[in-house]
Amino acid sequence: MTFTVREYRLGYAIWAAYRAAQAGSSKAKGPELSEALSKCGVVAYLDNYDGVEIDSDAYKKNHDKWCKNAIDYIKNKYNIDITYGIAAKLIGIFVKGYFILAWNENKPLSKVAHPPIDSYLLKGVDKANGSRLDKEYKWQKLDIDKYYELLNILRGSLEKDEEFWRIEKYWKLR
User: Fold this and answer.
1) pLDDT in tens, 120-159
2) Strand, coil or helix: 164
């Protein structure tokens, strides 16, 4: 049996996603997060995405379903609660690593996919814009309403038609 680049990319993207999301949750560990990611619907969606046009509202519906599925999976199988912010980070890192960075940055889905939100991104936006997002929003504690409130603020840091993934120009490790 041949090991494919798709399998390699999938394994790497799942690992990166659960490691990033795990940083915000001492409750859920790698196995729980990776299982939830594999079962929430995002992998199948991306594997079957054919480049069709998608707007931000349609993406939001999918994103919400994936996050809720991941949250419910971890709660039902492991009796562990994770926040919407942690689920969104799990999904965001996965979509970035598995899809966008696989030479899909110009596809319609990449233009509307939510960026992974964390303190590094928020500090970078704060530094560029003189805001205090990192103090006002803790990504690990975001519920669905605060998540979308913050997402709308972040969209405002970009030009009107700029792809949403480009917000990560503000993501800095220092």
Assistant:
1) 999 999 999 999 999 999 999 999 999 999 999 999 999 8
2) helix
Q: What is the pLDDT of residues 19-77, one digit of tens each?
A: 999 886 668 999 999 999 999 999 999 999 999 999 999 999 999 999 999 999 999 99
CB-based contacts of 53, cutoff 8 Å, min separation 6: 108
Identify the DSSP state of 10. Answer: H
For residue 40 the two structure tokens come to 């929430």
Q: 3-class SS at 53?
A: coil
The token pair at 7 is 């399998």
Structure tokens at 46: 């991306």
Q: d(Cα 138, Cα 110) in Å, to the nearest integer?
A: 25
Q: How far, in Å, CA of 93 to CA of 117, rounded?
A: 9
- Which amino acid is located at 97 in the chain? G
Integer Cα distance of 115 and 35 in angstroms: 21
Token pair 């999918």 in the structure block, residue: 62
CB 38 within 8 A of CB 91: no
Q: Which amino acid is at 151?
A: L
Over residues 106-129, the pLDDT tens digits come to 999 999 999 999 999 999 999 999
Q: How many CA atoms lie within 13 A of 61 on its CB side?
A: 4
DSSP state of 158: S
The reported pTM is 0.95
